[in-house]
Amino acid sequence: MQKRKLGRTGLEVSVLGYGAGAVGGLFTKGTAAEQERAAARAIEAGINYFDTASTYGNGESERNLGRALNSLKANVVVGTKFRLAAPHRANVAAFVAQSLEESLKRMGRDHVDLLQLHNPLVATDAGDRLAIEIALNEVVPALEKLRKAGKTRFIGFSGVGEPPALHQAVESKLFDTVQVVYNALNPSAGGPPPKGMPGLDYGRLLDKAKAADMGTIIIRALAGGALSGTTDRHPLAMQDVPPIGSALDFATDVARARLLEPLVREGAAASLTELGERFVISHPAVSTMLIGYSTLGHLDEAIAAVNKGPLPEAVLKRIA
Fold first, then answer.
1. Under a CB-based contact definition with an 8 Å cutoff, are residues 80 and 53 in contact?
2. Between helices 296-307 and 32-45, what is the axis angle to 10°?
3. In the chain, how many domains are there?
4. Is 126 helix (H, G, I), strand (E, B) or coil?
5. According to the model, what pLDDT value does residue 237 have?
6. With a cut of 70, which residues of the chain have pLDDT below it?
């Protein structure tokens, strides 16, 4: 599988990553045997970036991923995340340190490769939505302290929230990586938004990250599953998936995804999901793309899709 540079970290990561979150659900609700088989299959195929978070399944994702990777004695890149609630603002540094220690204990590790801020970033602080000034002035120093202590090698943030705040975080050059919302339904992080596109305009955030020499980790590559073209959900998957940066509801995203079906019928890709995955990896500023899996079949399909490579330029123009 193709490897790409993760910005200035010096790491080379597989263009397809393993998202161990609740949207796919295998690492929050699956059996231990299924989880280990999936991790083994991913590593065999060349996937070397695994992404989790303390909030996924109330820590179950970290616990299960750590057990599977330790059982396989896997030499892979692991990233996790923490999320500050309102009470944590009183002592940000203490909470970040405590959260990481709890994550490491669940995963059975003494450090992670990448520790990421998980809150949406905004101008005005409110509950789960974290003010950009707090992120830059309080969270970053706390992360740097953990980096110096050897608890994490690199630091990053989730690129959700208000686009101006996200651009400010990227332009600060204080983070090594950014998770970017980018898919065929909302491609604005990588180019001009299509006319009439609902949702947020991320203002070519991928190009901004590349200019800052940051690694980019694509999230919502399939718009939470909408780019499967169906509202049906696997029993392990998150049953209600609020859109991020796209339409106001999942059903609308599914309807918009179906507008791409003629490209599949014409042979541009074998399925809508393949079309969506190959669309994402076609952007040169993408380091890795996270897909959430419910089954080994989902994983095998994603591996096969990315191994076909980027979409032809003519197909990309039609999607745009």
1. yes
2. 10
3. 1
4. strand
5. 87
6. none
Residue type, 309: G
pLDDT digit string, tens, across residues 287-313: 999 999 999 999 999 999 999 999 999
- Going from the C-alpha of 201 to that of each of 76, 186, 215, 299, 312, the distances in angstroms are 33, 8, 20, 30, 25
**235: which DSSP letter?**
T
Beta-carbon contacts of 284 under 8 Å, excluding residues fewer than 6 positions away, are: none
Q: What is the CATH number of the domain that holds 68?
A: 3.20.20.100
Digit-coded pLDDT (tens) for 196-252: 999 999 999 999 999 999 999 999 999 999 999 999 999 988 888 899 999 999 999
293 annotated active-site: no
Range of the domain at 64: 3-319
56, 182, 202, 293: the active-site residue: 56
Q: Which two tokens stand for residue 132?
A: 């950009």
Return the residue matching tokens 């200019």.
Answer: 211
CA distances, 94 to each of 55, 132, 151, 207 (Å): 18, 19, 14, 34
Q: Is the pTM of this model over 0.90?
A: yes
Ramachandran region, residue 142 (left: φ > 0; alpha: ψ -120 to 50; beta: rest): alpha
